[in-house]
Design goal:
The complex is a heterodimer. By secondary structure, chain A is α/β, with parallel strands linked by helices. Chain A has twelve helices and 14 strands. Chain A folds into two domains: about 210 residues, Glutaconate Coenzyme A-transferase; about 35 residues, no CATH class. Helix content of chain A is about 35%, strand content about 20%. Chain B has a single domain, classed as Glutaconate Coenzyme A-transferase. The chains are: A alpha/beta, B alpha/beta.
Chain lengths: ~290, ~230
C-alpha cells in the first residue's frame, strides 16, 4: 500500500496516534504524509516527541501531546513544542520514560493500568493527576500506577517485512512491540519487502507479527533523519540544523513548505537531497547467524 | 576536568546507567583507563555498549554495534532499573537544590512555565532505583538554588555532585549537599558564591588532581576529537 493510502485509510482527525521508535526507526515519512493530508486534533503520543512531532505540532496537526522527554537529543530544545507549551496552545500529559513504557505495556496486555515502583518524592504526580497509586494486596506497599494507553493507530518503521506484515527489527527496539500490540490499527513501514521465507529463516527477529498489522508500506529511507541500523546512519547534522530551523516560526514554515508540502512522497524527498544516501549509507558489520535446526 | 573527576568515581566492573554528554565521556574514559570491565547501560536498550564513536544521542547506532545485549525499553526499566541492577546512575539538570533534588521539567510554575525543559525521560526512575547517583553540572547560583522549581528526580540517592570548581557530597545526617573537595587553585569562597544556600563544608577537603596527560590525550584525541562536549 502507498503511504498516501495507508494514512488516508488509517489515520483520522481526532485520533490517538503513536509513531514510535527510540531515536532509531522513527517514521518521518508517515509523519510528513499526515502533515500533507492535514490531519487535525490528533493526540500525539511518544516517549520522545523528537523532530517529527515538533514538525507535526508546527504544522497544526496536534491538539495534545503525551510524552516523557521532549528535547532534541544532544542538541537542545524542540522549539515548536516549547512555543506551544509556553504559549499554552497545546495540551500536554507528561510521564517519565518508565511511565510511558508501562502505559504501553498495560495497553498491550489489555489491562486497565500498570503498576511500577516510581515517582516517590517527585512532583510528577502533582503535574499529572493520571499518575496514581494503589496498595499492593499482598505486601501492603504503595505502588505507582499509570493508565493503559491504547492508541487508535501506531506506526512503526522496520528494516524488513513480508507482504503480510511480519516485521523484523534489529538494533534498538524501543517500545514498538508494546505500542503495536496496544493499538487498534498498526501501519508497518519498511526499508525492504522480503519473501516470507526470509522471515521464517530467522523468526526470533520478528518483533511485530502479521495478525496485528493493518497495512504494510515500503518506504526506503522513510526514517531519515532518524536511522535504520544496517541501512543508514542517523543524520546528526540535520538534528543540529533543526535548532536553527525550528527557532524561528518562518524558518520552520519554509522548511515544511520545501521538504514536506513541496514533495509528493519519500522518493521526491530523497531526490531533493541527492547526496544524502552517499553520506549516510551504513557500513558492513554482519552477524554470523545461528543454527535453528533440531 | 569534570569528565576526568567523574571517571575516577567509577570502579571497575560496576554497572553504570549512562546519560548523554559529559557522563558518556566520563564512562568511556573510565572504561579505557582504570575500569575496563565497566558495564555501560543506555536507556535506549544497549547493555555492555562499547561505542566506537562519541554518541550524539543516547540512541546512537554505535551503541548497538558490538554491545553485549540489546533489549527493549520495557526490559531496561523493569529488568534492570526497577530490579535494582544499576549501581551508578548519572544525572544532570537545569536546577539542583541543597538536597540534591533535580529539576529538568520547568523553570517557573508547571502550569505557566517561564522555560519549558525536556522533562524526566528516565531520570525520575534512575534517581529512585540506582544505588548511587552522580550529578555533573557547572556551578552557578542559577543552577544551584536552595529549592528547585519542580522535583523531577528526588535527591535521596545522590552521592556526589561534580562541578567545574569542586565536588559536593550529600551529608547523610543533614541531607544537604556539602563541600567535599576543591579543584586545584579554587578557593572555597568561590564555590560558596556559586550556590544559593549556605554551603557547609566537610572538616577535611579532598584534593582533586587535574587530568593526567594520558587522560587528556584520550579525551581530546580519541573520545571527543570534534569537541562535542569538551568545551571547558
Amino acid at each position: 500500500m502507498s503511504m498516501q493510502d495507508a494514512v488516508a485509510r488509517h489515520v483520522r482527525d481526532g485520533d490517538v496516534v503513536v509513531i514510535e521508535g527510540f531515536t532509531h526507526l522513527i517514521s518521518f515519512a508517515a509523519g510528513h504524509e499526515i502533515i500533507r493530508q492535514r490531519r487535525r486534533d490528533l493526540t500525539l503520543c511518544r516517549l520522545t516527541p523528537d523532530l517529527i512531532y515538533d514538525q507535526m505540532i508546527a504544522a497544526g496537526c496536534a491538539r495534545k501531546l503525551v510524552f516523557s522527554w521532549a528535547g532534541n537529543p544532544g542538541v537542545g530544545s524542540l522549539h515548536a513544542f516549547r512555543r506551544a507549551v509556553e504559549g499554552q496552545t497545546l495540551e500536554i500529559e507528561e510521564y517519565s520514560h518508565f511511565g510511558m513504557v508501562a502505559r504501553f505495556s498495560a495497553g498491550a496486555a489489555r489491562l486497565p493500568f500498570w503498576t511500577l515502583r516510581d515517582y516517590a518524592g517527585t512532583d510528577l504526580p502533582r503535574a499529572n493527576p493520571r499518575i496514581k497509586s494503589v496498595t499492593c494486596p499482598y505486601t501492603g506497599e504503595a505502588l505507582a500506577t499509570v493508565p493503559a494507553l491504547n492508541p487508535d493507530v501506531t506506526i512503526v518503521h522496520a528494516q524488513r517485512a513480508d507482504a503480510q506484515g511480519n516485521a523484523q527489527i534489529w538494533g534498538l527496539l524501543g517500545v514498538q512491540k508494546e505500542a503495536a500490540f496496544a493499538s487498534q490499527r498498526v501501519i508497518v513501514v519498511v526499508e525492504e519487502l522480503v519473501e516470507e521465507r526470509v522471515i521464517r529463516a530467522d523468526p526470533n527477529r520478528t518483533l511485530i507479527p502479521a495478525p496485528i498489522v493493518s497495512a504494510v508500506v515500503v518506504e526506503p529511507w522513510g526514517a531519515h533523519p532518524s536511522y535504520a541500523q544496517g541501512y543508514y546512519d542517523r543524520d546528526n547534522e540535520f538534528y543540529l540544523a533543526w535548532e536553527a530551523i525550528s527557532r524561528e516560526r518562518t524558518e520552520l514554515a519554509s522548511y515544511l513548505d520545501e521538504f514536506v508540502y513541496g514533495v509528493r512522497d519519500r522518493v521526491e524527498y530523497m531526490q531533493k537531497q541527492p547526496r544524502l544516501a552517499e553520506r549516510l549509507k551504513a557500513g558492513e558489520q554482519r552477524c554470523a547467524g545461528v543454527n535453528y535446526g533440531f | 576536568m569534570m569528565a576526568a573527576v567523574a571517571a575516577r568515581e567509577l570502579a571497575d566492573g560496576e554497572v553504570v546507567f549512562v546519560g548523554i554528554g559529559l557522563p558518556n565521556l566520563a564512562c568511556n574514559l573510565a572504561r579505557r583507563t582504570h575500569a575496563p570491565n565497566l558495564v555501560l547501560i543506555y536507556e535506549s536498550g544497549a547493555v555492555g555498549a562499547t561505542p566506537s564513536r562519541l554518541p550524539v544521542s543516547i540512541g546512537d547506532p554505535a551503541l548497538v554495534t558490538g554491545s553485549l545485549m540489546v533489549c527493549g525499553m520495557a526490559d531496561v526499566f523493569q529488568l534492570f532499573v526497577q530490579n535494582g541492577r544499576i549501581e551508578v546512575g548519572f544525572l544532570g539538570g537545569a536546577q539542583v537544590d541543597r538536597h540534591g533534588n533535580i529539576n529538568t521539567t520547568v523553570i517557573g510554575s508547571y502550569e505557566k512555565p517561564k522555560v519549558r525543559l525536556p522533562g524526566s525521560g528516565g531520570a525520575a526512575e534512575i534517581a529512585i532505583h540506582a544505588q548511587r547517583i552522580l550529578i555533573i553540572s557547572k556551578l552557578s547560583v542559577r543552577t544551584f538554588p536552595e529549592r528547585v522549581d519542580f522535583i523531577t528526580s528526588p535527591g535521596q540517592r545522590v552521592a556526589k555532585v561534580i562541578t567545574d570548581k569542586a565536588v559536593l557530597e550529600r551529608d547523610d545526617a543533614s541531607g544537604d549537599l556539602v563541600l567535599a573537595g576543591l579543584y586545584p587553585g579554587v578557593e572555597a569562597n568561590k564555590v560558596r558564591a556559586g550556590v544559593g544556600w549556605k554551603l557547609e563544608s566537610r572538616p577535611r577537603l579532598n584534593r582533586l588532581d587535574p587530568p593526567t596527560t594520558a587522560e587528556l590525550q584520550l579525551l581530546r584525541d580519541v573520545l571527543d576529537p570534534q569537541r562535542l562536549y569538551l568545551r571547558s
